[in-house]
Structures are given as C-alpha cells and as structure tokens.
TrEMBL record:
The chain crosses the membrane at residues 144-163. InterPro entries: PASTA_dom. This is PASTA domain-containing protein. Residues 1-13, 63-83 have a biased composition (Polar residues). Residues 1-110 are annotated as: Disordered. The keyword Iron does not apply. Residues 14-53, 85-95 have a biased composition (Basic and acidic residues). Residues 96-106 have a biased composition (Basic residues). It comes from the Bacteria. Residues 305-375, 376-441 form the PASTA domain. The keyword Chloroplast does not apply.
C-alpha cells in the first residue's frame, strides 16, 4: 500500500506520469503499425508472437499492474492474444475484468486454452474495449419472446379482472322473496324491472320467473323478474257450510282456497265447546253468501270454550270508602261489579256500607262483587192517618205536604181519607222529593137554601166552590117559571137545607119576572 502511495508523491508522481505518456505514444504508434499490417494481411504466428512480446516488454508496470498484483493465472500461463491486447491498452485491463465479473452467466474460461484475439474497433475511443458474446442473439430472441408472453398474460389478466369487476353472477331467485332480489340488485349495481302477475300456486311477492339465471350479467344492465301477486282477488269462491266444521277444518279450507280475507276469530263461550262453530259474518252487507269473492272480507267465529281464571286476586275492604274506589279496582282487575244503594243514618252518601266478598278473600278475573253504597240519611213518609188535618204539615219529617178536605158519604167529618205517597217510603238526598197530598173528610155535603136571594148567574160559582172543589159531584139543572120575583132569581129548588149524596142533581127554578104582584096567589108561593 505504501509502494502504491509513493508513486503519487513528489518526483515519483511526475516520473510515473511521464512514463504513462510515453507508453501512450508508443501504443498509438503500434496501433498505426497494426493497421498497416492488417491491410497487407496477417503474418504468421511467429511474427504475431514477436509483436506480442514487444508489446508486453514495453508495458510499464504501475501500482495496479505490478507483477506482485497480477493474477496468478497470468503469472503461470503463457502469453495469450488476450494478454497481448490487454498489454496494449493497460487502462482497459481493469474495465475488462469488471465486465467479466458482471457477466456471471458466461462459462469460466480455462487458462490453458488460448482464446481468439479481441477485435478492436479503431473508430471508437481508444480506451474502450468491446467484447463479442456469441450467445447474444439467442438471448435477445428469448428476451423478446418472454416480453411478448408477459404482455399477453398481462392483457389477459387485465381483461379477466375488468370482466370480473363489471359482471356479476345472477343467482336463481325463483321461489324466493322479491325483497331478496331488490337487495341483491342494489348491492351489485344491477337494474331491476318487476312485473307482477296473479299466481294461485305462488304466495304474494315470490319470484315466478327471471330473464337471467345462473349466468353473469353486466353491471348497469336490467334484470327482469315476474313477481307473484298471490291468488286473484276477483275470483269467486264457493263458501261451504261452516257449521259442522271444527276450527282446524276451517283453517285448512282457508289455506287451501287462499281465502285470506276470511278471518277466524276465537271467542270464549260458556255454552259452546272449544273448537266448535259460533257464527259467520260478511262485512259488506251487499255481498251475499252465494256471490262471495276472494277479495270480500268476512269473519268466522269459533268457540274457545269457557274461560277459566286462577283465583289470585286479593279482595280489599271497601267498607266506609267511596264507591268510586271499588269501581276503579274492579275495572282494573276485570271483576264484575254490582252496586246496590241503601240509606244509612251512619254512613255518608256515596260511601260503601257493605260488600258481598270478605276482605283478603282470593278471587279470579270475571268473578262478581256486589257492594251496597250509602245514599245518606233518608226521609221517611209518615202515616198521616194518625194525625189531624191541622197536625199533618208539622209531622211531615221535612217532606212537603198539601192538606185537603173532601166530602165523603161514608167517612165522618175530620177523619183521614188518603195520602198520595205510601207510608214508609224513603227519599234520599239525591232523590227528587214529591209533594205529598193528604186528604181529610168533610163528611156529607149539606145543601143550603138558595131561593129568593141567589141569582142564576151565581149558581156556577156556588156549586164549584162549595161542593165540586171539595170532592162532591153535585150538579144542578134550571128551569124557568112565571113569577113576580125579579127575573133571574132562584125561586124553586128540589132539595135545600138538608144533607144530600155527593153525586146529586139539584133542580132549580128561575123566575121569569113576568107577573105583577097583585095577580100572585098565595098558593103559588107555597108551591
């Protein structure tokens, strides 16, 4: 290493540079000689060897080309044409070795054999060495073949990838739901065209047919499917006699005939066994049993049997509580509630007096509970026969009383005849209270003498106020007589100053006033 560095220091560097320039000049001269000789023709081998010897003797050994650094093969082997060319161009020795190392695929040359001399292109740079590879042409052909095959494979792969990206495999949707097709087309970018048809054998929204099945379709293209609408609703359906049918038989018939608008309703019944027919109703009154179509709505009722509930509800104590509390509890627990009312001197109006089921008793839904609710303190109608007409109003216990006296042929004066409300009837605060009519007797009617001091015009008032308004059906009939008494005056009566029956008719004579007093005879007055 020190020897190598000494060549580039001081005088040695100038010396080495000078030697190198001299070597270069010799090399140029030798190349010109070779060119001249090559035009004349090749010399024999001995001449060639001499030339090589001359060239090798003229090569200056530098640091890199010193005998110590030379490869063993060059030391041991004889002088070859290759070595001659390398000696002629010392700068290219390293270049050739580098190129040789890079071409690993070339077979290792044996040192014993003498290779052909390397042809040097004089037109190129004198410092550049060109080596000819005899397998280059075949390698180039293979290279183009590989490139072509790779291109074909690449194009095929690209087309295959493009086809896979732009096409999708269409499954078999027949018999499946329309929603499944819609979901698939949305996910895969395929347009969907749906045509709906009535099909008795296919349920609604099931696929009947599709244009593409188990094949690929390009994305963005249209897939047409036929979807079922179910059975035709306009088709007439002959209804059977449902009465002898059981529930399961009716359901089977509905499924078989696709009568989906015929609804089965089950209800509890205490009389009809479970599963038996109850009734049949068609919703539209214009539709008859014989003209029923599949679209028409109808209801078919079957029994669920008697409803049985577990007794798991504890009965509260409602005594003294508002009846509304009992009503709300019964509604919440589906208990049938019967409310009866009664007056009470101790329980306020609207509160519960008693209940039919005791406290903490377990009951079930639909059981019946009866309660008695208070109407407050009642007003009782007394027995007015125990009182006189003057005492009646004061003994009414807060009730309104109207006292009357009427004529009666059998009951003596002042005695009780009747009352409009029965004895002992009770009236509560919420009840509307009537006016009680209490009647006492005036006894038999007494007919007064109305002659000579009563005018015909006063008869109506007298008979109504004195007799008819007091229960006596006493009427009168008038007739007219010749008399000196002022015209229109009562001069005669069939009964007067005596007791008469309450259904009597009194004959009354009215004066015409057409006679003078002197013409009157005493007998007329007596008459």
């Amino acid at each position: 290493m020190s020897d190598f560095l000494s060549n580039f220091s001081g005088e040695n560097y100038n010396k080495t540079r000078q030697e190198k320039n001299e070597l270069k000049d010799k090399t140029v001269q030798q190349e010109q000689k070779k060119k001249t000789r090559s035009e004349k023709g090749p010399t024999d081998k001995s001449e060639r060897a001499e030339k090589q010897q001359d060239i090798s003797s003229d090569v200056a050994i530098g640091p890199q080309n010193s005998p110590d650094n030379a490869p063993e093969t060059m030391k041991q082997s004889e002088v070859t044409p290759d070595s001659v060319s390398k000696a002629e161009h010392p700068e290219e020795i390293i270049y050739t070795k580098k190129r040789t190392k890079k071409k690993k695929y070339e077979p290792k040359k044996e040192t014993a054999k003498v290779s052909e001399p390397v042809a040097i292109d004089q037109s190129r740079n004198t410092e550049e060495v060109i080596e000819t590879d005899p397998t280059y042409r075949n390698k180039k052909i293979r290279k183009y073949i590989y490139i072509g095959l790779g291109s074909l494979v690449t194009v095929a792969l690209l087309y295959f990838g493009y086809y896979q990206m732009t096409h999708v495999q269409v499954p078999d949707f027949e018999g499946k739901e329309l929603s499944e097709v819609r979901e698939w087309t949305a996910e895969n970018g395929v347009k969907l065209q749906v045509e709906q048809k009535y099909d008795f054998d296919k349920e609604a929204n099931l696929i009947i047919h599709q244009t593409v099945k188990n094949k690929k379709i390009q994305k963005g293209k249209e897939l047409t499917v036929d979807a079922s609408l179910g059975a035709d609703p306009e088709e007439a359906v002959a209804l059977p006699d449902f009465k002898p049918m059981k529930l399961k038989d009716a359901k089977s018939w509905i499924n078989e005939h696709k009568a989906d608008n015929l609804a089965i309703i089950e209800e509890y019944s205490d009389k009809v066994p479970a599963g038996d027919y109850l009734k049949f109703e068609i919703t539209n009154k214009d539709v008859k049993f014989d003209t029923y179509k599949r679209k028409d709505k109808a209801k078919l009722y079957f029994s669920k049997g008697k409803e049985v509930f577990e007794k798991d509800i504890s009965m509260p104590d409602f005594a003294g509580k508002p009846k509304e509390e009992a009503t709300e509890w019964a509604k919440k627990n589906e208990i049938t509630l019967n409310v009866e009312e009664a007056d009470s001197d101790t329980v306020e109006n609207g509160k519960v007096i008693s209940q039919s089921i005791g406290k903490d008793t377990k009951v079930a839904k639909k059981d019946t509970l009866s309660i008695t609710a208070s109407t407050g303190k009642a007003l009782v109608v007394p027995d007015f026969s125990q009182f006189t007409a003057e005492e009646a109003e004061s003994k009414a216990n807060g009730l309104q009383v109207q006292v009357k006296q009427l004529f009666n042929d059998e009951i003596p004066y002042g005695r009780f005849i009747s009352q409009s409300v029965e004895v002992g009837k009770k009236y509560t605060e919420k009840d509307e209270k009537p006016v009680i009519q209490v009647v006492y007797s005036f006894g038999k009617p007494y007919m007064k003498d109305l002659r000579d001091n009563t005018l015909e015009g006063d008869l109506q008032k007298i008979f109504y106020e004195e007799y008819q308004s007091k229960g006596a059906n006493i009427t009168y009939q008038v007739y007219y007589v010749d008399s000196t008494v002022t015209k229109g005056t009562v001069v005669k009566m069939s009964n007067y100053n005596e007791f008469i029956p309450i259904n009597s008719v009194i004959q009354i004579g009215i004066s015409k006033g057409n006679l003078k007093p002197e013409e009157n005879k005493p007998a007329d007055k007596e008459e």
